Amino acid sequence: MKGVFSIGIDRRFADELARGVLAEQGDDPLALADMLILVPTRRSVRALREAFLRAADGKPTLLPRMAPLGDVDDGDWEIASGDGTALALPPAIEPAEREALLALLVSRFKDEQDQPIAQSAAQALKLARELASLLDELAIDGVPFEKLETLVEGNFASHWQRTLRFLAIVGEHWPAILADRGQIDALDRRTRSIRLQAERWREKPPATQVIAAGSTGSQPATRELLSVIAGLPRGVVVLPGLDREMDDESWAKLEPSHPQFGLRELLAALKLERHTVPDWPGSPGDAARRQLITELMRPAETSEIWTRPSAAALDHVTRADCATPHQEALVIALALRQALETSTRTAALVTPDRDLARRVAAELRRWDIEVDDSAGQPLADTPPATLLRALVTAVDSGFAPVDLLALLKHPLCSVGLSRPALLDATRRLDRKVLRGLKPAPGLDALQALIGEKKFGDAADRVQVIDLIDRVDAAVRELVTLMADGAAPHMLLDATLAAAEKLTPGETLWSGEAGEALAEALARLRTAWTGQPAISGGEWPALLATMLATETIRPRFGRHPRLAIWGPLEARLQRADLLILGGLNEGTWPPSVETGPWINRPMRTALGLPQPERRIGLSAHDFASALAAERVLLTRAEREGGAPTVPSRWLARLDALFGYDPESGAPAPEYIQRGRRSYLAWAEKLDSSDHYKPRSRPLPTPPIESRPTRLTVSDIEQWRRDPYGLYARRILNLKALDPLEQELGAAERGSSLHAALDEFLKTYPSGLLPSDALRLFEQMGERHLEAVLAAPAERAFWWPRFQRLARWFIATENARRAAGTRFLAGETDGSIEVGGLTIRGRADRIDETEPGGWEIIDYKTGRVPSPKELEGLFAPQLLLEAAMAEHGGFEKIEGKARAVHLSYWQANGLGDGGAVKEIKASDELVPKMMALVARMVAHFGNPATPYEALPWPEFIPHFNDYAHLERAAEWSTSGGGEE
User: Fold this and answer.
1) Are strands 377-378 and 551-552 parallel, antiparallel or unpaired?
2) What is the C-alpha separation between 76 and 68, in angstroms, rounded?
3) For 511-552, how does the pLDDT look when each residue is reduced to its tens digit (9 = 90+)?
4) Are residues 869 and 913 in the same domain?
5) Domain check: are 404 and 461 in the same one?
6) CATH code of residue 352
7) What is 147-202 written as a DSSP string?
8) Rounded distance, CA 239 to CA 248, Å?
9) Is the domain of 562 the same as that of 677?
10) What is the phi/psi pair of residue 731, to 5°?
11) Same domain as 104, residue 72
12) Please, which residues bridge with residue 841 across strands?
């Protein structure tokens, strides 16, 4: 057997190859041992090995030597050469060292303004990886780096000209660096080794049989080797899925994005016509499936002769269009789980979408299934690596609350304490110290803040101080080094030393993740030794970028019949059910990107293929998978709230079988829409037929627990939402302030109140000074300094304050000219109603006439509507009026004979402010007092419940207890008592 063959896309490649090889060798048990089979990947080697075992029916067999064509090591070539001589090639540079050296070149390059093109070490490393990809692409296609110099700068835009100047510098320095080290790039070495082996075999053909199977020859060096193998006396090339049934016109018009384009290029290199390539001996395959894929992938130029395959061609295909990525993952997990119901059945998910793969793996854990993911898990997301990242992030932020808590609550962190003791101290630190405004950076400032805070028990304070002392002792050296800046390898050493103080080394470095992290960091430390110093602020991002490309794969414990593969890993693989997931444009096929270094005209000038070639490879993977025994196609219709675009291959399937969403044409049967589908299962899985919504909360606390002292704000809450008052004043539930709370509307309002109060107390009577506006703005500047510290806040709010200041001064002058006199500001008052003490604080009280007062409430936000006032749902000013009439204010002697009420809308909009008087306040005040008296009597009955939100039209504008009230649940079920 020699020459070029093809195994149809509808046949199981590895099984057919193994059966054919065994049939050719006959009964000689040693014949296979002298054979070399080259396949695309290492995973393909494993798949072919298993195929041989199946073909031999489990009989003991000496298998041929098998090696991955894309990653053949020197030992394989020495054996393959027949004389045991090694290839005379320099060693390959380690990937981590290569990235570090390229990052150094990138960081040293500056533009015409003497500014570096990389703003940080992490950005330099990312650009270095893109540069490494370009170097690899040049090596694969045999384009010398010096050819970049032939690109004329004047032919391109200015930013591309700067790129060319940078690449010219790299082109001079990088080969010199490699030559000085006596090394070459790994991909360059692989390409050279393939070319050298091709030359060896051309000059001295091996005596043993060589079979190259499954490769499309997408790389020039590979095509050269395949050409040599095809010409060997005992050489065999087996092509995957060559389409010999496509019409000649379509074959001639193939574009790089077509799955057969690579095979057409390979046949041209082999100087063969596709009709002369025979089938590999074996089963005839399924002609209907071949026709389906041929028509599905027909070039657009010949689409007018599209022939619709029979509906039976899709009998093996099912499609599920899911609403969200979560539903898609659940549908896939259900399909995989169903496959296990048959004891011998295998199933695999094939997808380039790593997020989808992780979601599916997580969903399978609900059935205690650990699935083998060929891409592994990102090392940066494992517990040991996340501890290092949390550590350097916390140090860089000055131990900001969120970052500090993320570090202390990390499952590997212990700081020498037991886990319960650590979490107990951390929770006290969180509740008592860190909530609210962001504290000053640094552990020293945090210790001072702990000393200022109130603790219910002195032992709690000691516990929290001890926790911070332990953290300080662990990270002190790292804090100092990051503050001063240092070389990356020194920062790495300090980070590891601090991490080992936060958690025992036997914990940090144990298990698969710990061992993999230790190995990766050892490589990175060697690679980055000797690099220049960086600032400490660059270290967190650099460390994360260093670890971003590292992955970890579990050694054992994964399910033997389920797998998750990438499209590359799926080549030559076998499964009874293949699920093709993530079939959206931009995912499968991937989006077309040229990279940051060279554009399309540059690629053409250099002789590099355009990015659409990658789509052709992706299309070949899709077409090969579509021909499997059973196939499930899935996609998500929306992602991140935005609609997605179906993969072009799904759109072709729809067009081929007559599905038109716009015209309403019926969907093909292979698209799942019925009740007996994976989609229906997914919807049913987490739903319940026995759901019964809870009713409206109606707690009835004992009479002795009910409050006897309330504020005017409490009265409003009581009126609008009795349950909220119950939660706040009886259960003593208070919402925790957010961590690192930003200064916002509440702080701006308080600062403005303080500025107004200071001005009025400084100038309480008489006409205002001539420079009153300037004086008031100075007070506002002082009180609002912290609130308007950010430039954006100042640019937005300060002009509004200035408009408010002009309005306020003009209004104040007019009032004083009319005889109004300032009495008190920010003054407390109280009143008794049926045994209930009500307290309040008035923003401002003026005397408008002898015995006539005006109570003013400053509003920087909304003002209560007339409907709210008339319904007695805004009681603050009404109750303060009652306090004035009863002489209840502490700083004012006597009682008011008449009270006027008004809101001053001090928001800086329009003219700067507005006065809104409460009409008919003399009628509303007694009504309010009567209502409070009735409420006191009503809730004095122990059977009276504190009902949640009894007035849907007047719910609180700010409600900290909405999650406890569950209004969305009971409001749709008719309410009722609980």
Assistant:
1) antiparallel
2) 10
3) 899 999 999 999 999 999 999 999 999 999 999 999 999 999
4) yes
5) yes
6) 3.40.50.300
7) GGGGS-GGGS-HHHHHHHHHHHHHHHHHHHHHHHHT-B-HHHHHHHHHHHHHHHHH
8) 19
9) yes
10) -85, -10
11) no
12) 828
